[in-house]
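Per your request, structure below.
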């Protein structure tokens, strides 16, 4: 998109700029008083998800203009281009087809003469067979013991997605316990392995490229641990029985020493942060079984279908994306909080950080021209109620407005002494408090002393999306993830950026490769004075 094609040049952008001038002072109490049907009118449903969007700083005029922006920037058209396999990741020359990973086996999608849906189901079938052998105990380690622990070794999308889903679906987990090692910090692997027995442990090396420094380093140390712990077994049998790989790079897997018969592949049209529903989800499949994993995929597909068919006004991912643009570009709010009221979703905000910030943390349009507008916000969050006792103070009374998604599950997998109702009461109370606040008069009426009135008042009109699910099933989790994938897609499309590359992570990797040998040598240093001094300090202080 050239500058003249920037979204800032659309009529809708100009209209939203006008509307923003007054919207900053919008008072949600007044909006609700003036419009008794507001909650109902601004509720949007998608598959098993219901979202109350009424506590946003919007009215019908603003919504109309946001929808016009989505139309003028071609959100629906670009979505169709994506799911059809067009090469929309232009900087890497790739199609973007994570939606093909969850299409039913009865579908087909021909790309360059190949049915990619059939390819996906071929891999899913192989994954299911191996997952079942591991779950049933038929797959044994080199000493004949059954596998009781699986360690996923991967980072970024090869860690965040499976870890998030494994935790979210803990209730569905059966006998096998999964662990996730991502950090190149050796303490991560060492602490994880402390309580594990090599004879009962299977490593899954998860890396799309199979070139990622952190993952290869951890996989090597895992291999050494297995070979050391199973010294009586034949080394190649130990590796064959204790390692499987998830990757697009068969050569890299072979070079590492993992039999490619134990490799589950995917394709370059799956971005790392969009890969939890590919072979990268193997640890989740082992934990919950292939049938439930199929449900997880069906949930993604529910939202894909919704995204591809619902008009923008009733399209939940698109609406969340457009509301985010309203706050980021027109009201100037720099961050967005995701606050799940579900301990099972404890890793969901971390997962979304990569999905959103690696996708839309961009400063140039598709054609390389610099953007003339803000792009991706800072995404962050923690589960409620914990966050309430940590950072909600700032959300309620700080000087920065932080729009938030509040996510709740109506029917709990576990309930003890009515605690779930307590959790949900907190969820609803937070949305109410943020939206409607507490005036000085109300504070005074409760007997507060004059000097404390301003301290104890809440301005309100702090926006939230309330997203509710009936139950946290694998299917609903798939729906939630796809909801955010397509929210991010909507925003990237409006901004005209490439949401599917990640060049911004490369420079640090490149420089780290140069610094590694410098830490252990006495060679002259040729960095800036700060980096040189840091390296010298490390050399002098590091005990070996
Ligand atoms: O460095 C960023 C990144 O490329 C992510 O996009 C990706 O999820 C992660 O690294 C891990 O990559 P891989 O799966 O190839 O090891």
């Amino acid at each position: 998109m050239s500058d003249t094609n920037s979204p800032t040049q659309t009529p809708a952008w100009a209209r939203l700029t006008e509307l923003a001038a007054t919207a900053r002072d919008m008072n949600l109490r007044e909006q609700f008083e003036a419009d008794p049907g507001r909650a109902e009118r601004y509720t949007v449903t998608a598959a098993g998800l219901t979202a109350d969007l009424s506590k946003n700083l919007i009215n019908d005029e603003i919504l109309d203009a946001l929808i016009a922006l989505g139309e003028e920037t071609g959100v629906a058209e670009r979505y169709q281009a994506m799911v059809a396999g067009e090469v929309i990741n232009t900087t890497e020359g790739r199609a973007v087809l994570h939606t093909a990973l969850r299409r039913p086996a009865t579908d087909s999608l021909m790309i360059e003469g190949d049915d990619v849906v059939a390819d996906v189901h071929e891999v899913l079938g192989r994954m299911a067979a191996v997952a079942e052998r591991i779950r049933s105990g038929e797959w044994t380690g080199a000493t004949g013991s059954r596998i009781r622990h699986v360690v996923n070794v991967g980072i970024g999308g090869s860690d965040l997605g499976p870890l998030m889903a494994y935790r979210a679906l803990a209730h569905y987990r059966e006998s096998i316990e999964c662990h996730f090692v991502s950090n190149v910090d050796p303490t991560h692997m060492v602490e994880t392995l402390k309580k594990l027995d090599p004879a009962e442990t299977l490593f899954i090396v998860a890396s799309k490229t199979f070139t990622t420094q952190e993952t290869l380093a951890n996989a090597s140390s895992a291999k050494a641990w297995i070979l050391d712990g199973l010294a009586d077994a034949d080394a190649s049998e130990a590796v064959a029985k204790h390692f499987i790989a998830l990757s697009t790079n068969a050569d890299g897997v072979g070079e590492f020493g993992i039999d490619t018969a134990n490799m589950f592949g995917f394709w370059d049209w799956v971005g790392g942060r969009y890969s939890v529903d590919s072979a990268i989800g193997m640890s989740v499949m082992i934990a919950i079984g292939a049938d439930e994993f199929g449900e997880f995929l069906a949930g993604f597909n529910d939202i894909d279908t919704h995204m591809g068919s619902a008009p923008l006004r009733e399209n939940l991912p698109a609406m969340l994306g457009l509301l985010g643009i309203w706050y980021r570009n027109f009201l100037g709010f720099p961050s967005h909080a995701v606050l799940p009221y579900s301990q099972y979703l404890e890793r969901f905000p971390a997962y979304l950080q990569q999905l959103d910030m690696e996708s839309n943390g961009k400063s140039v349009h598709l054609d390389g021209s610099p953007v003339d507008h803000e792009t991706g916000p800072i995404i962050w969050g923690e589960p409620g109620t914990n966050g309430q006792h940590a950072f909600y103070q700032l959300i309620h009374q700080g000087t920065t407005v932080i729009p938030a998604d509040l996510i709740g599950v109506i029917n709990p997998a576990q309930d003890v002494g009515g605690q779930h109702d307590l959790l949900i009461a907190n969820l609803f109370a937070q949305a109410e408090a943020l939206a409607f606040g507490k005036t000085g008069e109300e504070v005074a009426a409760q007997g507060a002393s004059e000097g404390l009135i301003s301290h104890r008042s809440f301005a309100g009109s702090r926006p939230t999306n309330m997203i509710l699910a009936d139950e946290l099933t694998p299917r609903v989790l798939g729906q939630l993830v796809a909801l955010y994938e397509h929210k991010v897609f909507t925003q990237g499309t409006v901004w005209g950026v490439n949401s599917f590359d990640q060049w911004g992570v490369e420079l640090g990797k490149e420089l780290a490769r140069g610094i590694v040998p410098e830490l252990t040598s006495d060679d002259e240093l040729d960095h800036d004075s700060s980096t040189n001094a840091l390296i010298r300090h490390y050399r002098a202080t590091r005990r070996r």
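The chain has a mean pLDDT of 97.

Regards,
D.
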